[in-house]
Request: fold
Amino acid sequence: MKLPKLPKNLSMFLLGIWLIIEGLMQLLNLSFSGLSTLMAIFAIAIGVLIILKR
Reply:
């Protein structure tokens, strides 16, 4: 079984996803326990990838 290819610029792809999720959370007032922690971890991971230019 072949795995799908990752985008060439993974950090920008993940940043786009993070921004969409963040926007939907604000627009639709979405929330669950641990969401802020999850989003913080996601933001840190994206920041590291951007710094490493992946």
Q: What stands out?
A: The mean pLDDT is 83. Residues 10-28 form the longest helix (19 residues). Residues 10-51 form one domain. The radius of gyration is 13 Å.
